[in-house]
Write a structure and sequence with these properties.
The protein is mostly helical and about 70 residues long. It is built from two helices and no strands.
């Protein structure tokens, strides 16, 4: 019988390690899993807002360049 390692086959079971590490971090820091998910949600919302702001800024620069106006940075 062959010995199994974490890299056996195509499934390295990283999802289980990530889940266990998250739970362990919550226990060590005294946080609840709900608190961690709340912080992660706000992080995702913030990143989405930043991407939208950059896209709007890029559009406004392209429009002003196509109209022949000087671009002020």
């Amino acid at each position: 019988m062959l010995s199994r390692t974490l890299a056996y086959g195509t499934d390295s079971r990283n999802i289980y390690l990530i889940f266990l590490a998250t739970c362990l971090a919550c226990v060590i820091n005294g946080e609840t899993l709900t608190g961690i998910l709340t912080q992660a949600t706000w992080l995702v919302v913030t990143v989405i807002i930043l991407v939208v702001v950059q896209a709007v800024d890029r559009l406004s620069v392209e429009r002003s360049a196509s109209r022949g106006r000087p671009i002020v940075c």
